[in-house]
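User: Fold this; tokens only.

Assistant: Input:
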Amino acid sequence: MKFRILVGAAGVALFASAATAQVCQGDLSFRSGKTHIGGTLGMSDHSTSFGGGATWGHTRGLYGGGSLGMASYDGFSGNGLLLGGGVGYAMPLADRSAWQLCPGATLSLGFGPSQDLGGGNTLHISAQTFTLGASVGRALPLNRQITLLPFGSVALGHTSMHASAGGVSGSSSDSYLDIGFGAGFQLSPSVVLRPALNILAGADLVDDTIFSFAVTFALPR
């Protein structure tokens, strides 16, 4: 059961990552600046993570970035280190369409925490999560101050975990369909608040529901 909790946390690390940002993902367009920084809080049934990162890109075309964070897990003392990264490509869904389509991929790595088992033995755990999919979204001005950025996404995800203690090691993996949706609230040309929900259909080892809340800032040109 503890192994399942830790692998589930790798999913939180992925979706709390600040490594992906575009209108198609309910976030700021790179029109207001080519560099964005942000932070995200992620929560699943058995874990909580938080982190920050930076992204770089263009309004249309290639974009990507990376993030660094920490996670805590039910039943474990200490925190784990989380590293995330992602790349994508932004394009119109169709000619003259207000909707934006972004195919992309992400990678999340989780390290620890280590757990003392007694007798001089320590449990060491690491996890990796990879996704490949696409997202779609658009900007909907509500008034002069607020623009709504609804989005949806679908991706194939794969999580693997490795554990070792006392010279004995083992691994496990899980594949699933990741369905995500949410909406960003753009409060100014350089600030977005974004709640999101991800459901991992067919997941056995990972937590299947993940909520995240992110804030993004565009740096001045």
